[in-house]
Amino acid sequence: MKRVLPYLPAFFWSVAIPLLSLASFRNLPDVPVLRFQGLDKVIHLLMYAALTSFWLYPISMKRRTQPAIMLGVVLAAGLYGALMEVCQAVFTTYRSFDIFDILANLGGAMIAAAGFYLYSKWRVNKFSETTES
Question: How far from chain centre, in Å, is Cα 5?
């Protein structure tokens, strides 16, 4: 159970994304303050940054400094986002496939992974410097 518990937010968010991606939001009230060009892409970027963060958080700092680990999580999130776009085109009539949504998903995953990588690298280097002194 100890090994599964840290991944619960990642599992939850991995299930929430298809629900949100395939839902119809036609009946939501219009909020002019939240209406701007590109809002959809910002939402995609944030959703996949969160997804990537939830999957990376439980991984040890040392493993998060390995580019292959980070690349694997980014590619998995990107492929998941691409699959969601295909599902929108195939399973709904009110949503459509958009290559720019896939790029926004991948961008969010890359930004989150870069942040985790840089922070983890800094922490691992800082810790190794203090133990050498």
Answer: 19
Neighbours of 83 (CB within 10 A): 14
* DSSP-derived 3-state class of residue 53: helix
CA pair distance 74, 108, nearest whole angstrom: 9
Distance (Å, whole) CA 25 – CA 15: 18
Measured distance CA(112)–CA(53) in Å, rounded: 6
DSSP character at residue 33? G
Give the C-alpha separation, 132 to 127, whole Å.
Answer: 9
* CA angle in degrees (0–180, nearest 5) for 55-58-59: 90
Q: What is the pLDDT of residues 38-94, one digit of tens each?
A: 889 999 999 999 999 999 999 999 999 999 999 999 999 999 999 999 999 999 999
Is residue 108 within 8 Å of residue 52, measured between CB atoms? yes
The pTM of the full predicted model, rounded to 2 decimals, is 0.88
Q: What is the per-residue pLDDT across 21-43, written as a single tens digit (0 to 9) for each?
A: 999 877 777 777 667 788 899 99
Nearest Cα neighbor of 87 from 71, 102, 107, 76 is 102
